Amino acid sequence: MDPNLQHVLKRLRVMVSDYAYQKQERNFDLFGINVCTVEYDHQTMLFSIFERQNNGTFIFDDIDLAAIEIYNQLVDFQLVF
């Protein structure tokens, strides 16, 4: 597995295990630019991914699919540079 994908998955797992707030939010940046913001809602157990480049929103109930989407967004953004 790609180390970058493993890093994304690790950050998502931390969000799921952190119960300090009902909704956890993390930014995924590349070159100092926000590529996407991820929100995890403990009540619904859903990941919402807000893509900055195309202003899209994706919702996942599976941590692996959410990680793949974030990873793909980071790779696509990197290809622009």
Automatic annotation (TrEMBL):
Pfam families: DUF1797. InterPro entries: YkuJ-like, YkuJ-like_sf. This is DUF1797 family protein. It comes from Periweissella ghanensis.
